[in-house]
Design a protein that fits this description.
Blueprint (H helix, E strand, L loop, with lengths): L16 H17 L8 H11 L6 H12 L8 H18 L9 E2 L2 E2 L1 H5 L1 H20 L6 H11 L5 H11 L6 H26 L4 H28 L2 H4 L5 H4 L5 H5 L1 H18 L8 H12 L3
Antiparallel strand pairs: 1-2
Helix pairs in contact: 1-3, 1-4, 2-6, 3-4, 3-9, 3-15, 4-6, 4-9, 7-9, 8-9, 9-10, 10-14, 10-15, 14-15
Length: 302
């Protein structure tokens, strides 16, 4: 059994040294796979690096690494999928922030990509980041490369992030049921979080039973991440969360607090983390990093 983390809803979780080391590993790997700033076309490469290396929680590569660790794999073979999933995330943020989408001027505590480089260059940077993600997977692990490409493609397509964003755009000003809201976010946010875990499991050649348990974990963590995001939109401060607080409510977007209330959102968050932890209980201490990441997703302050 996994130990119960102290202060199950601790408002300021501290990441362990092991996870901080994995963040540093992800930063190095991302820096290596991204084209250098002085290589033509310089402005595009600058925009790509600005978008991908501008801080961030690195939750998705951490989930890939932590899944590998839970299955006994922690070698360099995890770097390519960890980078790929973060590059997809970075591309999605660049495009989500555009005026035609969420129209955000701040991301990760600094001006968004299109504010710095212009809308056209931001679109190209997002496109190039997405292409690079698939390129590094394609030239990676030959044993499971096709499965990885399929997994990542599904996560960012019409049944994943793109579909979730489409649902999000059409939901503005509408009243959704809780089931409709959860489905939307299972696509928009949860699909890539599930893919991050699946990529780690594929790299470690997990069996079907382990894959199912890990997918239950990832599904719960993905939704918990969004519930926490919606809570922060109500309670957070822009300077802390790194983006414009209260923007979803102002835009008339349906959120967990707007549909079920703030207290019920906190209850739902706790339920989801309990589900995630139960899903990986059979892994024992090997899942300590996954357990910590579930706790972090529920308690992050940005």
């Amino acid at each position: 059994m996994l130990p119960t983390p102290p202060n199950h809803l601790n408002p300021k979780p501290e990441l362990s040294a092991a996870l901080r080391a994995l963040i540093a590993r992800a930063e190095r790997a991302l820096g290596d796979v991204l084209p250098p700033e002085d290589q033509l076309p310089v402005e595009l490469h600058r925009a790509m690096r600005y978008a991908a290396l501008g801080g961030g929680k690195r939750l998705r590569p951490l989930l890939t690494y932590a899944t590998g660790h839970a299955l006994g794999s922690c070698g360099p073979e995890l770097d390519a999928p960890a980078c790929a999933v973060e590059l997809i995330h970075a591309y999605s943020l660049v495009h989500d922030d555009l005026p035609a989408m969420d129209d955000d001027a701040m991301r990760r505590g600094r001006p968004t990509c299109h504010i710095v480089f212009g809308e056209a260059m931001a679109i190209l940077a997002g496109d190039a980041l997405q292409a690079l993600a698939f390129e590094i997977l394609a030239r990676g692990n030959p044993a499971c490369g096709m499965d990885m490409l399929s997994t990542l493609g599904h996560a960012c397509g019409a049944e994943g992030m793109a579909g979730g964003q489409a649902l999000d755009l059409t939901a503005v000003g509408r009243s959704l049921t809780l089931a409709e809201l959860e489905h939307m976010h299972a696509c928009k946010t949860g699909a890539l979080i599930r893919a991050a875990v699946q990529l780690g499991a594929l790299t470690a050649q997990a069996d079907a039973q382990a894959m199912q348990a890990l997918d239950r974990y990832a599904t719960a963590v993905g939704l918990a991440f969004q519930v926490r995001d919606d809570i922060l939109d109500v309670e957070g401060e822009s300077t802390v969360i790194g983006k414009t607080a209260g923007k979803d409510a102002a835009a008339g977007k349906p959120t967990f607090p707007s549909i079920i209330g703030l207290d019920a959102s906190r209850v739902r968050l706790t339920e989801l983390i309990d589900t995630a932890r139960d899903a990986i209980a059979s892994f024992g201490e090997r899942a300590a990093l996954l357990d910590e990441l579930a706790h972090y997703a529920a308690n992050r302050i940005r």
